[in-house]
Design brief:
Helix content is 57%, strand content 10%. Strands 1, 2, 3, 8, 10, 13, 14, 15, 16, 17 and 18 form an eleven-stranded mixed β-sheet that branches. The chain has a three-stranded antiparallel β-sheet with strand order 4-7-9. A two-stranded antiparallel sheet has the order 5-6. The longest helix is centred in the middle third of the chain and has 43 residues. The radius of gyration is 29 Å and the shape is elongated.
Length: 751
């Protein structure tokens, strides 16, 4: 048995190393750093449709030799604090910015000493900086005087991170940053500086003052950027910098002043602002060697229109350089075509300059997948994400209602002697519930067009599957075993080969919210473990398999499950931890070993060692480590403070989900049922243990697995509820039939 385990593990690790190798094209080049430039144009608060509806010949040139996609720009703030997305881009982590983060000025500009109108004393920005920080500002043209408030606000939310990380690394590597433009209207709005500044709030070169603006009665707000002045400053700064950030704030000014106008005029004004920005971009493109320049067009915040549609997290991004081709952006952070994150922004720019900082950022450099129709793919993906965002809860609630009806139908008669539903309906209902994860995975193949059709497909299709299987097999537990193992195998095929169906399922992840972008989420993780246990132990019950054979079969399969959940494929560390614990529990329970403190400690230590080993292998052999490997690196470099930060964040997530997750009603019902059955129906449980020992072992392992999932996952509420479906639904079927057995002790004919 040990030899089998060893061969399977070696094969799995070899597959992980091969499949983990990078396959996409990076934007990095081999030119000298001093010969290269990165131009980042910021068009904030616009949508992909806004760009497509505008006449943008210069952006079109970039797209002919470049890639586009959506960037998840989520930060730790409400949509009203637009500065948080800028700070998150610069720090490479989702964080919260100070509301004063836009207060940046030229170092020698005069600044009021007090906001009190009767005091007219002015001092230089350098003096204000020294007053606020206690330090003389380092050399640099632009100073953000709110740096200490920015730092305090961000590090309260995301401790053990670095404010101004991108600017800091650029400075250390000999790269010079610069910034031009602003989003000023009534007050300074220079949040762009939080993206480009270093840890001291300093930007070496820049021009962000109000004299870049000009009045124009034909634009909303009455002011716009003066392109001549802006271009003069670009020409002045460009020879001295490697990275130039351009805030073309006219798009923001349109959004800020649109309340008194019609939607048509607002849209027209926004398109004109985009077209002015495109014209300016064309002038900048003439000032640089395009063969040695990386161009990026980004949108740190979504427009109000797309937010109202439900898209609060995805904005368009365009990237072009001599090394890119027409296509879609992707990164190892998302592993989804046409999707990257704000984590990837800093690493991409540094990668272009040949600067590798794997331990500084949690993101990865963006890469390009060749595609001749990227806009078509992006619009389709956006529609799909919006559909799931709108209707995900409908799918979940319908599933929850179905499970709730089954639990009431099976267990209420056990306590009040009142039969709610006929056994035939309950039997079909139980099989339908177990078939729903399969139909949830395949509903996306039809394109998510109509909620009515999709609901019919999911639940009607699950019923048809249960009906057909019930007609094919004359024994109920063969049907249950078939459903369980089919679900498990189907999930593993998707994890190892398809790598898509679970992600875009209603039980999958949310690209807009950005919790998970690839691998297996906690919903399907619970289903995978539950269906595996039910499928195997149902077979063990049917065919009276000997204990050593049982152990070999299920532990061999569990190794595949563990590898599938591991950082190399599923990237679900909580699931991997739970699966490893379940595998060890299987060996103990199958061989009827009694639990002791010593055995429990051995299991816990073994699981911890296994997890650390997987994370270490992820770091050592995976060119682009997943969250597990990066978490281990963070623990090594950050020490106990980083460990407690991770634990604190996970606990907050656990409590949030415990209060808000829709599956709580099912999990609480399952918890109450566990107590009631143990307290008042123990004689039935004893009878099941005596007459169905293998099934009972599977039920015990599933119960313990549910507890492990809840404890080891920040969103473990859903995963725990879903794995326990594979305990309480079949247990209900079993108890229903036991009650109907005759006085001689012979059980229902299906058995």
């Amino acid at each position: 048995m040990k030899k089998i385990f060893k061969n399977i593990l070696n094969l799995a690790l070899a597959m992980c190393i091969v499949l983990g190798m990078p396959i996409s094209k990076s934007v990095a080049a081999s030119d000298k750093i001093e010969d290269k430039k990165a131009i980042i144009l910021i068009l904030d608060e616009i949508s992909l449709e806004d760009v497509l509806n505008s006449h943008t010949p210069n952006i079109d040139v970039l797209l002919e030799n470049g890639a586009m996609g959506f960037m998840n720009i989520r930060a730790r703030s409400s949509l009203s604090n637009r500065g948080s997305t800028y700070l998150s881009l610069g720090m490479g982590v989702r964080t919260l910015a100070s509301t004063k983060g836009g207060l940046a000025f030229p170092r020698n500009q005069m600044y009021p000493l007090s906001d009190y109108s009767l005091v007219s004393e002015y001092v230089t920005v350098s003096d204000i900086y020294k007053l606020y920080t206690g330090k003389t500002p380092p050399d640099g043209e632009i100073i953000n005087i709110a740096i200490r408030d920015i730092e305090r606000t961000a590090l309260d939310i995301t401790p053990n991170n670095q404010v101004g990380l991108l600017g800091k690394i650029a400075k250390e590597k000999g790269l010079v940053t610069g910034v031009v433009g602003n989003s000023d209207l009534d007050v300074p709005a220079r949040e762009i500086t939080m993206l480009a500044m270093d840890e001291n709030g300093i930007i070496p070169f820049g021009s962000i003052e109000s004299d870049l603006l000009m009045t124009d009665a034909n634009v909303l707000g009455g002011i716009k950027l003066n392109q001549e002045r802006l271009l003069e400053e670009v020409e002045r700064i460009l020879p001295h910098v490697n990275m130039l950030f351009i805030d073309y704030g006219d798009t923001v000014r349109v959004q800020k002043t649109n309340r008194l106008t019609t939607d048509d005029i607002k849209e027209e004004q926004k398109i004109k602002a985009i077209e002015r920005a495109d014209s300016f971009l064309g002038q900048v493109m003439k000032k640089v060697d395009q063969e040695k320049t990386l161009f990026m067009v980004i949108t740190p915040n979504p427009s109000k229109e797309v937010v109202n549609q439900g898209n609060f997290g995805l904005t368009p991004i365009i990237m072009s350089s001599a090394n890119t081709e027409k296509g879609l952006l992707i990164s190892n952070t998302t592993r989804r075509e046409g999707l990257v994150t704000n984590f990837d922004f800093g690493p991409t720019i540094l990668d272009f300059f040949g600067v590798a900082e794997p331990r500084s950022f949690i993101g990865e450099p963006m890469q390009v997948i060749s595609n001749e129709n990227p806009t078509e793919v992006l619009l389709r993906n956006q529609a799909q994400s919006l559909y799931l965002r709108k209707y995900r809860s409908v799918f979940h609630q319908a599933f929850i209602v179905l499970v709730g009806i089954a639990l009431v139908g099976f267990y209420l008669p056990r306590f009040i002697k009142w039969k709610v539903l006929p056994n035939k309906i309950l039997n079909y209902l139980s099989l339908t519930i177990m078939a729903v994860p399969l139909t949830m995975m395949t509903v996306s193949l039809f394109g998510y067009k109509y909620i009515g059709f999709d609901l019919f497909y999911v639940f009607g299709g699950a019923f048809i599957i249960s009906y057909i299987l019930n007609k094919i097999f004359n024994k109920k537990w063969i049907t249950i075993a078939t459903l369980g193992l089919t679900t498990s195998v189907f999930l593993l095929i998707d994890i190892f080969f398809v790598k898509k169906l679970m992600i875009i399922s209603p039980l999958g992840s949310d690209a807009i919210a950005g919790g998970r972008f690839y691998g297996i989420g906690n919903d399907y993780m619970g289903i995978l473990l539950g269906s595996t246990l039910l499928g195997f132990f149902s077979l063990f019950h049917l065919y009276k398999i000997k204990k050593p054979t049982m152990a070999v079969f299920i532990t061999s399969y569990m190794i595949l499950v563990i590898v599938g959940l591991s950082p190399f494929f599923g990237a679900n560390m909580g699931g991997t931890l739970s699966a490893m614990l379940i595998a060890l529990l299987i060996l103990l329970i199958v061989f009827d070993k009694k639990f002791s403190f010593k055995k429990i400690m051995i299991i816990v230590i073994g699981v911890i060692v296994g997890i650390l080993l997987l994370a270490a292998l992820d770091v050592l052999f995976n060119p682009n480590p997943t969250h597990a490997g990066k978490a281990l690196e963070s623990l090594i470099t950050g020490g106990f403070s980083k460990f407690f930060e991770i634990i604190s964040y996970k606990l907050k997530q656990v409590f949030w989900n415990l209060i808000n997750a829709s599956w709580n009603v099912i999990l609480f019902s399952q918890l109450i049922l566990s107590i009631l059955l143990y307290r008042w129906k123990s004689e039935i449980l004893v009878k099941i243990r005596e007459n169905y020992p293998n099934l009972f072992k599977g039920f015990i392992i599933t119960l313990l697995g549910g507890i492990a999932i809840f404890l080891f996952n920040d969103t473990g509420t859903i995963g725990a509820a879903l794995i326990l479906n594979y305990l309480f639904i079949p247990l209900g079927v079993l108890m229903n039939d036991i009650v109907e057995c005759n006085g001689e002790g012979r059980f229902h004919k299906f058995f």
